Model the fold of this input.
Amino acid sequence: MSHEVTNPPPPRPLIGRERLAGLCLVAFGLFALYASADLPFFTEGGVGSGLLPRALSVLIILLGIVQLAICWREPPESTGSWPIRDMVPVLVGIFLFALTIRGFDFGSFKIPVLGMAVATPLAIFCSGMAAKDARLVELLIFTVVLSALCIALFRFALGLSLPVAPWLIGY
Amino acid sequence: MMDMLYNLGLGFAVALTLKNVFFCFVGCLIGTLVGVLPGVGPVATISILLPVTLALDPTGALIMLAGIYYGAQYGGSTTAILVNIPGEATAVVTAIDGHEMAKRGQAGLALGLAAIGSFIAGTFATIVIAALGVPMTKLGLLFGPAEYFSLMVMGLVFAVVLAHGSLTKAVAMILVGVLLSCVGADMETGRERMTFGLHMLTDGIEFVVLAMGVFGFGEIFKNLADPEKRDLVKGSIGRLWPSLRDLRENMGAILRGTGIGAVLGVLPGNGAILGPFASYAMEKRLSKRPQDFGTGVSQAVAGPESANNAGAQTSFIPLMTLGLPPNAVMALMVGAMMIQGIVPGPQVIERNPELFWGLIASMWIGNLMLVIINLPLIGLWVKLLQVPYRLLFPAIVAFCCIGLFSISNEPAQVMMAGAMGLVGFALWKLQFEAAPLALGFVLGRLLEEKLRQALIISDGSMTTFVTSPLSAFLLAIGAVALLVAVLPSIRKSRDDVFKDA
Amino acid sequence: MLRFNRRAALALGVALLSTAGLPALAQDYPSKPVTLVVSYAAGGGTDAIARVFASRLEKALNGRVIVENRPGAAANIGTEVVASAEPDGYTLLVGNQGPMAVNPHIFNLKHDPAEALDPIAMIADASLVVVVGPRLPVKSLAELLEKAKAGELVYGSAGNASASHVATLLLGQTAGIELKHVPYKGAGPAVNDLVGGHIDFMVTTIPSVIGLVGDGTLTALAVTGSERFAELPDVPTVAESGLPTYTASAWYGLLGPKGLPQGVRDKLASATAETLADPEFIAKLKNDGGVPSTLSGQAFADFMASERARWGEVVKAADIKVE
Done:
């Protein structure tokens, strides 16, 4: 790996898509090897819980090296832009949903069980803000309508035991 | 033969009563609905409805529950095609080319072929159950742990064929999938593996979390990063329904898929999941343009969808002839029968012929209903794609979040899927394919389970995999398929190297 | 953006559901839906019993009862959820012998079920059955034990530390024989391999094999309960077959967080008793191989304590431990 980094820098993209892919495989394999290091390889009379994970980790590292070897001499291709910032609202929406649907205990700070009545509109509105062409009023109306629909559908039509709004109606 | 016709006649007489047709319709409708909704599967739905079925008569109850099951299989493909979220392992294959077709404006064609393919498969599978149900039961019993392990190895080799890009990367993705399937408590010792002390990981990573994250959320991230591409989806909406010519071109794939799916559906322990991608692998092998697979080939939707539906139905065979449930839904069906005071097992055919044959006949009626319910819906689904993406994706996020949470009422699953979405995006950026990952994940669980069971039984002797003729045969097929898949690409890449030099 | 969004959404949520009033206090219990936690995913045996039980309990309590599946960590998550819930009677647990009597011996649990939970009443007690398949053509338990002494037999179980597993361990320990364990994921696939002749025998729940026993595909050698099972009158108990001290069963009970108000406890206990007298519920239990229980309150607590001590010894002797 260190060998790879000291490679004379190619013209534009530093590593290139294919090499990055190879490096990712090697890194993932090493990580898995570390994660499964405490597991026994064999047990009396059978395969231990560590055999398959560690064998797979080694194979993945090897494949990563093969991948690096294949693209070694090819000119690196760019992976394009990584517009992580555009995704943040969606991730925030997903996380807010997770934190509010059943509440969350951070130790010093507690989020109560807010239920679907809060979590669903949060998820919809927040992720909707990710679109470059988002329109506030339209999104607000859409959020209200769709949230009501979701509650009606999942909680009442399908009968899933999801908290709706315990702080308001008790369940 | 006459017996069979007589029995089927009895079955249709039972299934065609107004009441049972109604139950069948309700089941198919609920099934389609929960299938379309990502995360809410037939297992949760059926268990919620179980106490309700107490009030119904046994035949009606079972007809309805069965309708939910194959309706859900059907609905799941719709979501896979439209928004690239495979709600179940079997829909992963459909999503590969199905969603590409939808992006090119052929959503109607893809959905239509899926519907018609499923109907043909359902018809054929109904006949198979009626005629060959009992002998086919024996097939499932031949598969002990050793044979099953070899079958999974063969399946993983087929997964290589699914890839349309780099072979190295595809194999790596399969292995990563198998590795991810190892996370969680060890089935033999209960010891936690690679869970980092996280409670939510002790039972392993949920397939739905992986699929919705990598495929569902990943697709949204992809589209947000690339707004031009996402607009192509709405560029042109093709014909809504497939033409006769489309049907003719896909009939071979449908029939082959049906055959493969029907056989694999009988296997215990979810063997049916192999069906769709064995069919995909076969279509790719037979195609004159295998390089187009993965870019929206109709045969790659029609074949696997037929296999899926045929398998979903023949998986009733072990349940009905032996009382052995091959998957979680069938286990619930056992529960439903017990609630009604019917002991599932070989005696059901003799003791409750009207139930047995009525259920079989209702499957065909159910398939007909699914076509009737879904063909008109295709127009609606395609219209759904015309909803501005800025509103479509928040809706997908909401449905996914609720679905993910409802799996085990655990918010952490929702967060994990969100993180998986980023992984999916990174995979796309690095041109790794997600389908082999998902398949490796699904097959990996069974692979290790069966490997270890087989070795316990054989006292740790690896020869158990070749001394069983069936196991040896399956391994041989796998080896040949691997050679066929790998050799050309090794030769080709070597040619490329020489060309460059 | 974030802060605004949150406030807006909260306001929306309030606007959306501003019609209903606040729930009344817990004087006339239950004044809101009761949540019945099941530690397994929807679709399992415990889940099925809990759902039918819940639908009957609703009538007896005259209020809604919602089943909530909180699976995970060998059913320990459900225990934890209820142990740390408010003891107001609105969060209850359907506990069974796995997490209540076996898990405390093999896991490091955050909450000891005996300390953190209040046993309300036992629901049912289900006998298991010893069955053999075509690979081991024996006709009685004595014969099976004979064969096992001659060479190691392979048995399947519904999973590590499941009722099916520990009951077989106890059988082996009582008879003084070595057995080889093949864990499966649930009874279904294990029974499949038993029928296919890939394993020798199994101790499993009665409903998972009763159809196959009736047909002669499998042979039932003995039931593990203290009495014969009505639907299998010719099958002796294990105790009758030469191991007089042996009994094992899968049981289910209703528990709440420690510190339930006495009034709520009494109401729940009498509602459970009423449910268990319902002929339809009894019929359902019978189909699952179970009989309704009469133990409640302290008697149920004592039963759990004795079960826990008993299985603790079995698990210790077999050296099952999850580190």
